[in-house]
Structure formats: structure tokens, C-alpha cells
Design a protein that fits this description.
GO cellular component, one term: cytoplasm
Strand order of the largest sheet: 1-3-2
Number of helices: 5
Protein name: Ferric uptake regulation protein
Structural class: alpha+beta
Number of domains: 1
Largest sheet: 3 strands, antiparallel
Subunit structure: Homodimer.
Order of helices and strands: HHHEHHEEEEE
GO biological process, one term: regulation of secondary metabolite biosynthetic process
Subcellular location: Cytoplasm
Helix content: 25-40%
Shape: globular
Number of strands: 6
Radius of gyration: 18 Å
Amino acid sequence: MERLILSMTDLISPEQGYGSSGRQGCPFHDVRQRLRRVGLRPTRQRVSLGWLLFAKGDRHVSAEMLYEEAMKARVPVSLATVYNTLHQFTEAGLLRELAIDGAKTYFDTDNSEHHHFIVDGENTVIDIPASAVDVAELPKPPEGYEIARVDVVVRLRKIGA
């Protein structure tokens, strides 16, 4: 597994600055651009965590999983910073939060409409395409509210377990 070791010069050089287009194609530039588009300042920690989150494609991570990845990649962040950053990314629309039983929370890098399988007894979350789930009828929301989205979680267990 490749290690990600960051220094300030990896994130931004003095002559290029935050607004430079000279870093097109650079993964850190891409993360900075993504953060700017949603109104988040591309701080060193946000860019580093964003790179760890988004560089591997669509996936589901917990704060603890991301913190562990950051430690392995020698990204100097605290677990509290990881939690705060994940919540900021979620509020900005970069992630979807998936709370399981109130005890476990995953953050999904895929913002498209879809649902999830959860494997009981494992830290496994599997995407279900939205078209594979038929929600025939939804209840009318209380007055003053509207339905923002429907999240279906289907729990799995291994046969014979």
C-alpha cells in the first residue's frame, strides 16, 4: 500500500498560491478546487483528509477508519479534527452520513441517490442502486416539513451464522 506523506510544499507553494491554475491535474489541487466549490476554505488538514477520502473512489468510512488512514499516511491530525472535518464535508454536501443504530456512523463519498446493505457483525457497507429499491408509498410529512431524501438500509447476515 502506498503511503501519503505531506508537507506544506505538497499542498501549496509560495509562488503558486491558492488561486493558481498551475497545479491542474495535481490531486491536491483537485481537492482544493472541490472544497472551494462548496464554500470550504482549503486548509492543509481539509485537503489532506479530502485526498485520503476521495482518492480511492466511492467508499464508506467511519471517523476512526479515516483517522487510522491518516496516521498511516503520517497526516498530523487528531481524531476530533477528523470528526469535525467529516461533519463539515457532510454539511457542505461532499459526503452523506449514514448512522447505524446510533452507535456507528459511516460517511459515504458517493452523493448519488442510492441505498445500503449493512452486514451485521462486520464493518461492511455495500451500496444498493436506487433503482433496485421500490418505495411504493411514503407517509405525508408533518405540517411545515418536506421529505429531503429516503435512505433504505437492508441488514444482511451470513447464512449459517
